[in-house]
Design a protein that fits this description.
The complex is a heterodimer of chains A (113) and B (113). Chain A is built from no helices and eleven strands. Chain A is mainly β. In chain A, the strands form two sheets. In chain A, strands 2, 4, 5, 6, 9, 10 and 11 form a seven-stranded mixed β-sheet that branches. Chain B is mainly β and 113 residues long. In chain B, a hairpin with a 4-residue loop joins strand 7 and strand 8. Chain B starts with a strand and ends with a strand. Classes of the chains: A mainly beta (113), B mainly beta (113). Chains A and B meet through strand 5, strand 9 and strand 10 of A and strand 4, strand 5 and strand 9 of B.
């Protein structure tokens, strides 16, 4: 079974702090994604990566950056957290060989005070 | 603009009853359509995936249909159970290699005893 794990289920940070969200997948997938999910807005793509050291902006990249130094790991960075970044963050991975089906992690509920 | 729209936004049914969720999309060129189930506080889990040539697919009590001509899909749940209470998300993939998906906003289903 594909497994996507995220470093924290719940996280509370203060405004202005630097926040790291880690995601690891164990299926050797090429593609990895970071989304945020808010009530009424559905899942919105922040950044994605289709190879090591490669990254592409999604629909809402402002205020975020990413890092992919290894194939299995994709990190989301909030350089200076703000209250409007309070959200559920979901990581996913996929492979073009499997219809690009995305497998999601359990999510990180981030609260910025 | 590529879009996926779902209806209804929310639904309440009694345990044991059937229900049908709808999805309309305008994604082109179309590759595949999938339905995800997301329990509260969890990441989405894939229920079914259908390509252009498939018009129905079942997964236990879940049956998805696809009409590629009218660009509509439905998810039918038979003999609902309390554990079916969740959000159901319709997701469409275009033919790009990066694996980006277009998400609907989801239908929240509540099954009451």
């Amino acid at each position: 079974d594909v497994k996507v794990t995220q470093s924290s289920r719940y996280l509370v940070k203060r405004t202005g702090e630097k926040v790291f969200l880690e995601c690891v997948q164990d299926m050797d997938h090429e593609n990895m994604f970071w989304y945020r999910q808010d009530p009424g807005l559905g899942l919105r793509l922040i950044y994605f990566s289709y190879d090591v050291k490669m990254k592409e902006k999604g629909d809402i990249p402002e205020g975020y950056s990413v890092s992919r130094e290894k194939k299995e790991r994709f990190s989301l960075i909030l350089e200076s957290a703000s209250t409007n970044q309070t959200s559920m963050y979901l990581c996913a991975s996929s492979s073009p060989q499997v219809y690009n089906e995305q497998f999601f992690g359990p999510g990180t509920r981030l609260t910025v005070l | 603009k590529n879009q996926v729209e779902q209806s209804p936004q929310s639904l309440i049914i009694l345990e044991g009853k059937n229900c049908t969720l709808q999805c309309n999309y305008t994604v082109s060129p179309f590759s595949n359509l999938r339905w995800y189930k997301q329990d509260t506080g969890r990441g989405p889990v894939s229920l079914t995936i259908m390509t252009f040539s498939e018009n129905t697919k079942s997964n236990g009590r879940y049956t998805a249909t696809l009409d590629a001509d009218t660009k509509q899909s439905s998810l039918h749940i038979t003999a609902s159970q309390l554990s079916d209470s969740a959000s159901y998300i319709c997701v469409v993939s275009d033919r790009g290699n990066t694996g980006k998906l277009i998400f609907g906003q989801g239908t929240t289903l509540q099954v009451k005893p």
